[in-house]
């Protein structure tokens, strides 16, 4: 609690009394602490790729690298780290837009099957590179009311994680079903499951936090930003939905997103 007192005076200058203001600043302090932690994390995350770009470029400029193959591999690193910086900045901006509520959702009926056809198209190449089989079981004529670009982002993030954290030759599957007792409670449940490395039990409660990773090195080498799941969580909640995870180390993970079939009213944003 913060306690402030100011003296009050009458128009003629005589003392009238004190005005006391008692304010609960716990929430403000908590948000301030979160913000400064976020800034510290962001700076750290940006420094790593920048250091790599600088270091490898300097080595090349110094002319110490003679064989073409090493030169190429250094250039590849510079390129990849540049890409990662780009993604990182994109994710940070996206997250801050969502959090400051400056990004109103554009609601329209979205056909889930078509949404996933588009996503599969974009994911095919990275799955093929690892010989990962993509499977889907999605009803043809199912619509949800939502922001198509945001929905796409939710499922792209989940699909690209599933591919990144699954060994070569594995399988990634999307199941969509309607759940709910009555028509008013109807929801669409989308499950993105993989046969990948899984997530240790102790990490499960934290993986939706910004920059939280089970294995930093692995996330980096797969080009991850550590922000994907936190964006997924924010966006599903903006759609009045929820997301949760079930996972077993060495067996695989399932991310389960539930969204209302139809929004009855425009949500507050
Ligand atoms: P990243 O960019 O590191 O993938 P995310 O926010 O998308 O960041 O995910 C956070 C962490 O959760 C990842 O670093 C990884 O450790 C873990 N994770 C996410 N999806 C999966 C998955 N399908 N299988 C195993 N681990 C996962």
TrEMBL record:
Please list the residue ranges annotated as the Histidine kinase domain.
41-263
Record's keyword terms, sorted: ATP-binding, Cell membrane, Kinase, Membrane, Nucleotide-binding, Phosphoprotein, Transferase, Transmembrane, Transmembrane helix, Two-component regulatory system
Where it sits in the cell: the answer is: Cell membrane
Keyword Transmembrane in record: yes
MF (Gene Ontology): ATP binding
Source domain of life is Bacteria
Keyword field contains Phosphoprotein: yes
Residue stretches making up the PAC domain: 1-37
What protein does this entry describe? histidine kinase
Section of the entire sequence shown: 332 to 600 of 600
């Amino acid at each position: 609690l913060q306690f402030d007192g100011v003296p009050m005076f009458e128009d003629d200058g005589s003392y009238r009394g004190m005005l006391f203001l008692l304010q609960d600043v716990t929430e403000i302090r908590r948000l301030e602490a979160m913000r400064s932690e976020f800034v510290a994390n962001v700076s750290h995350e940006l420094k790593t790729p920048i250091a790599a770009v600088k270091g490898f470029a300097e080595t090349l400029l110094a002319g110490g690298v003679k064989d073409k193959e090493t030169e190429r591999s250094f250039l590849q690193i510079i390129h990849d780290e540049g890409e990662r910086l780009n993604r990182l900045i994109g994710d940070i901006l996206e997250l801050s837009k969502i959090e400051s509520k400056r990004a109103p959702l554009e609601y329209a009926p979205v056909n889930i099957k078509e949404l996933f056809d588009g996503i599969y198209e974009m994911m095919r190449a990275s799955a093929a590179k690892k010989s990962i089989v993509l499977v889907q079981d999605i009803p043809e004529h199912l619509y949800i009311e939502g922001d198509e670009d945001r929905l796409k982002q939710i499922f792209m993030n989940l699909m690209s994680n599933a591919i990144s954290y699954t060994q070569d030759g594995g399988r990634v599957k999307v199941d969509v079903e309607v759940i709910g007792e009555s028509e008013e409670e109807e929801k669409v449940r989308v499950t993105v499951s993989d046969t990948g490395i899984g997530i240790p039990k102790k990490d499960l409660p934290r993986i939706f936090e910004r920059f939280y990773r089970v294995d930093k090195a692995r996330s980096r080498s797969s080009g991850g930003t550590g922000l994907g799941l936190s964006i997924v969580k924010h966006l599903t909640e903006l759609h009045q939905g929820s997301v949760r995870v079930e996972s077993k180390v060495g067996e695989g993970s399932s991310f389960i997103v539930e969204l209302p079939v139809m929004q009855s009213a425009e949500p507050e944003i």
